[in-house]
Specification:
The chain is built from 3 helices and no strands. The protein has 69 residues and is mainly α. It has one domain: F1F0 ATP synthase subunit C (F1FO ATP Synthase, Up-down Bundle), CATH 1.20.20.10. This is ATP synthase subunit c. Belongs to the ATPase C chain family. One of its GO terms (molecular function) is proton-transporting ATP synthase activity, rotational mechanism.
């Protein structure tokens, strides 16, 4: 049995699970928080956007490393 293709892509596929779950948890927590405290929406959304950007950066770094290696 011979494996053809890049094994890096399998690693990238597994590495995307973490950021995907992270983004889902960030937005689900924001929705729950806004439902409980609607007046705190502005403060929560700024933290959500920062968390989303940092979490998404992990996926971008993973794909860059998958193609570089």
């Amino acid at each position: 049995m011979e494996i053809t293709g890049s094994i890096n892509m399998i690693g990238y596929a597994l590495a995307t699970v973490g950021p995907a779950l992270g983004i889902a948890w960030i937005f689900s927590s924001a929705i729950t928080g806004i439902a409980r405290q609607p007046e705190a929406r502005g403060a929560m959304m700024s933290a959500v956007y920062i968390g989303f950007a940092v979490t998404e950066a992990l996926a971008i770094i993973a794909i860059a490393l998958a193609f570089a290696l």
